Description:
Layout: E1 22-26, H1 28-38, E2 44-46, H2 55-71, E3 91-94, E4 97-100, E5 108-109, H3 112-131, E6 135-140, E7 144-148, E8 151-153, E9 165-168, H4 171-190, E10 200-205, H5 215-235, E11 240-242, H6 245-252, H7 268-282, H8 285-302, H9 311-332
Parallel strand pairs: 1-2, 1-6, 6-10, 10-11
Antiparallel strand pairs: 3-4, 4-5, 7-8, 7-9
Helix pairs in contact: 2-3, 2-4, 4-5, 8-9
Amino acid sequence: MKFRTEIEREPLLQPIDCRDKVLFVGSCFSDHIGSWLESHWLNVLSNPWGVLFNPASIAQSLQRIQEICKNGYSDLGSDNNEKKTAQTFELHEQSGTFYSFDHHGKWSGKNADELQQALVNLDKTVADFYNSTKHIFVTFGTSWVYERNGRTVANCHKFPANEFTRRSLSVEEIANMWSKVIECDIQNRSGSSGGSNDKHWIFTVSPIRHIKDSLHGNQLSKSTLLLAIDELQRRHPKQVEYLNVYELFNDELRDYRFYDSDMVHPSQTGVEAVRELVSECCFTPQLQQYMREASPIVRALQHRPSDTESAEYKKFMADTLAKKKAHLVKFMSP
């Protein structure tokens, strides 16, 4: 007798393999999955601009990168190639700290010039990674956006509330802006002699509820995101797939034991359930085996004894590092 409603677990048509590059962008859920794979030595880049919750801010960030991949990138102040992208960011100061409304608060600083250069260098790094990335894992958190002077911001950085207007994106708005992102990548690839692989877009909706929008408002927001992704799948069936993490939490794991003490974020048990779903649906059999064999080595390397200078611990670490090397040779060698 079954005591819960189990969701469908359908493997992706284009699963992730051991040597694939994966870019994770979006909400903290995307960051969590990316960090998990990164800790197991896979070739991933996780939320380079910081946590971005709404579809518009994520799309704007990726469009900057696509422009760099298409035209190249000129150094700040350089005019030797008019076609190259010369991106600069509008920085805003508050209490002696500069912020960018295109980035999470972790990208802030006391020196505007240094922050500007750091953001430019960041986009260059992301562009280099994006150009040869096979999978892009996108997690939408909310359809609600804050706009400043008519432009969506990624983070308000605790600036005065009267500087922003708040509204919800529509299904059509989200689908249209993301169709441009996906189609731009296809066009860039077809017009390029090399560099960019076929991009596979894996979309998810974060199961974390935005209760500050009210429970009803949160449901409307999540529904908008789900409908927008469904429309993207209809428009781009070869490029776009959906991973049903949202349904896992809201239909299969309908119990607060899967939530942390704040009753919003997943507990460790919930995290393990999500990882099982990602592994089962998103990984090739080889990558599933890779993760199973890597996990005990990762745990061993994370062990911290009371005496790190002891001969026993040094031998333990040497043996564990040798296991890691053998593991990578086994799965990562061409």
